[in-house]
């Protein structure tokens, strides 16, 4: 837990005269988070205008001189993901060509992080995006809860992958009544490690939901069917040939573990399409769970997620403000937000003052 971080970072102003060479810039993706971070650091946001022409080209105009300054560009991924990316790349390149000393990309939610594996005849989009960011001039990346930790290896610059788990654990302990009667639930076997990590630190039991109505990402067929099938007369006997892969057959959805008469807490790194969470909540309710919480770092909440959550057995969805979701909160009273600007501002302060980042990863496991 990041106990003691709040006292130090509540007004975590830069040391000495170093405020003069730090500039906080933000795009259009999440200006509210940028304001929170700038206020905690005690610095003024730099003058930067990012807008679109009538032909939808992105224009970036930096109002102040940034020669020799340390730039921190705050831009996250939202539903307008492609514009978010282009704004970030153009802002970074504008800073690079304006002779900035260093350019750090603060990207709380990294877009395209789910496309980090080869699918069919596609490509690994996360690596393409990482290379584009490095080429644009970014010399350091600060992000939070990457979908896969290995994405850090796609970048040719340092990446600090912060964790929101201390904030979520604190929420469980302080805001869920009788949390000692809870069980941490993994929505699928793939998230069992994360659920185990939470359960061990809270000294709680764990349950795993096995079998899904919708295919998990890890179960998708690779899809490459070449070379084409050769007529039987031209192939070897099957006994000496390449054995065929047996098709996976999923069992009916069920819960491994006891949730009867207890509070079920599902944990994951992001909530985008909520249908799988709703299906899991219905099964947990049938198994006797009397309250169901869903906790995640990134609350994308796409499509009609607010309506589905409102009509589901889920009692509360808790996400951080890495992604703006004020509109979704207006449509669904079950969505709660945790502010993580204090963690990002402390990371910026430590990087700027060339301090160790290890304190921010204290007691954080690889499974978080």
From TrEMBL:
<dbReference type="GO" id="GO:0002189">
    <property type="term" value="C:ribose phosphate diphosphokinase complex"/>
</dbReference>
<feature type="domain" description="Ribose-phosphate pyrophosphokinase N-terminal">
    <location>
        <begin position="22"/>
        <end position="137"/>
    </location>
</feature>
<dbReference type="InterPro" id="IPR000836">
    <property type="entry name" value="PRTase_dom"/>
</dbReference>
<dbReference type="InterPro" id="IPR029099">
    <property type="entry name" value="Pribosyltran_N"/>
</dbReference>
<dbReference type="InterPro" id="IPR005946">
    <property type="entry name" value="Rib-P_diPkinase"/>
</dbReference>
<dbReference type="Pfam" id="PF14572">
    <property type="entry name" value="Pribosyl_synth"/>
</dbReference>
<dbReference type="GO" id="GO:0006164">
    <property type="term" value="P:purine nucleotide biosynthetic process"/>
</dbReference>
<dbReference type="GO" id="GO:0000287">
    <property type="term" value="F:magnesium ion binding"/>
</dbReference>
<dbReference type="GO" id="GO:0005524">
    <property type="term" value="F:ATP binding"/>
</dbReference>
<dbReference type="InterPro" id="IPR029057">
    <property type="entry name" value="PRTase-like"/>
</dbReference>
<protein>
    <submittedName>
        <fullName>Phosphoribosyl pyrophosphate synthase-associated protein 2 isoform X2</fullName>
    </submittedName>
</protein>
<dbReference type="GO" id="GO:0005737">
    <property type="term" value="C:cytoplasm"/>
</dbReference>
<dbReference type="GO" id="GO:0004749">
    <property type="term" value="F:ribose phosphate diphosphokinase activity"/>
</dbReference>
<dbReference type="GO" id="GO:0006015">
    <property type="term" value="P:5-phosphoribose 1-diphosphate biosynthetic process"/>
</dbReference>
<dbReference type="Pfam" id="PF13793">
    <property type="entry name" value="Pribosyltran_N"/>
</dbReference>
<keyword id="KW-0545">Nucleotide biosynthesis</keyword>
<comment type="similarity">
    <text>Belongs to the ribose-phosphate pyrophosphokinase family.</text>
</comment>
